[in-house]
Write a structure and sequence with these properties.
There is one protein chain. The protein is of the alpha+beta class. The chain has 3 helices and 5 strands, in the order E-H-H-E-E-E-E-H. A 5-stranded mixed sheet has the order 1-5-4-3-2. Helix 1 runs antiparallel to helix 2. The two termini are 23 Å apart.
Length: 104
């Protein structure tokens, strides 16, 4: 099993998603974020489950799709480092620069 780490950016992304959903339903906000986290945990056993992120053209930068969200992660020496969770409609190149994703 590979070790999974969440960046501060990814943690803040999850909080923002929860805050947005909680405006309508605090229950569904918690449930949805927990489901994202459980889905990401599958990377511990299957780190290459996600596809390569087309915008970065780097085999070590991958993503899982969960509903309308992209769980972006980097594979590094037997570790899975989740760098961001972003809505699929967002320009991922711009967001990665604005949030200073830890992908380098």
């Amino acid at each position: 099993m590979d070790e999974i780490s969440w960046s501060l950016t990814a943690q803040k992304n999850l909080e923002a998603i929860a805050d947005h959903i909680a405006k309508d339903s605090p229950y569904y906000a918690v449930n949805f974020v927990n489901r994202i986290m459980r889905y990401a945990e599958t990377l511990g056993d299957l780190p290459e489950l996600g596809r390569m992120v087309p915008e970065f053209n780097d085999r070590s930068i991958r993503e899982l799709i969960f509903h309308n969200y992209r769980i972006v992660y980097k594979l590094q020496e037997g570790k899975v480092f989740i760098v961001a969770v972003t809505h699929g409609s967002v320009d991922i190149n711009r967001k990665s620069k604005r949030e200073r994703w830890e992908i380098g």
